[in-house]
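Incident log, structure service

09:12 report received: a user says their structure output differs between two submissions of the same chain.
09:20 pulled the input from the user's history:
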Amino acid sequence: MKTSLRALFCAGVLLAATLPAIGSASAASAQAQAARCRIIASKPAVNQLGQLSAVGSRSGNCFGKTRVRVRIKEAVAGPDTTLKSGSKVVRTAKLRVRAACEPGVYYTQVTGRFGQVVNSRKVRITTCTPAPAPTPSPSPSPSASPSTSPSATPTATPTPAPGGTTVGTAVENEVVRLTNAERAKAGCGALTHDAKLRTAAFNHSADMSAKNYFSHDSADGRKFSDRIKQAGFSFRAAGENIAKGYQTAAQVVQGWMDSPGHKANILNCTYTHIGVGHVAAGGPYWTQDFAKP
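09:34 re-ran on a clean worker, output below:
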């Protein structure tokens, strides 16, 4: 069964304190920080518009904002050619650049603070035929926002979560449990299943199910950060994973963990709260919303 995964980070709304600029006298400290702050480059691929698309991200315990640049590079005789370059000043974020597609050998290059340069594996593109649109098969992502379709929107009755509070269904709480198990392995604190984040996540899964689409952007144009705010959760940092087609909590969490971008969200130690929304109709559809108040 074909699977598709999508993940997003919320950038530009982080209010965490930053450290002073690091000079040459603190090279050891810079190296230690770089080790905690991960730069990830994903292989270029042909998207649904027939373009070359490359993704780079900065995640983990990153102190302070810095300019992250993502380049699509073509491996050629002599110096490799940069087809497209884009950058943004962020603390943690996922950045995407796109370029016109031609057959060739390409890789993604991401640069960040402290001289970090990461290259993805090279990939040979033989055809620029657009990638097929997602079908009802496994894939993860988050959601937020208290609105969606009226009568066509599926509903789910929350069941008591561990700790005595009523947040989410049993399968949604299993996703939280498995997510926290992965975070524990990486030394990150457990996430609290938050009722407002769960509302945002569930409503997005329900909206995708009712309107038959799969995207971080709602059918009405809202971003995941908009949906989280509308659910009443104020945050300093936020992120989201969505998925479609995975039949069990274990399968969808493993799918996310096998994807660098989704894994980076799950293992981002900055986050303290989570909301999970699961809707079976037409998918199943899954949404994880992460946040730090």
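09:41 both user submissions now match this output. Likely a transient worker issue. Closing.
09:42 reviewer note: DSSP finds six helices and 14 strands in the chain. The longest strand covers residues 51-60.
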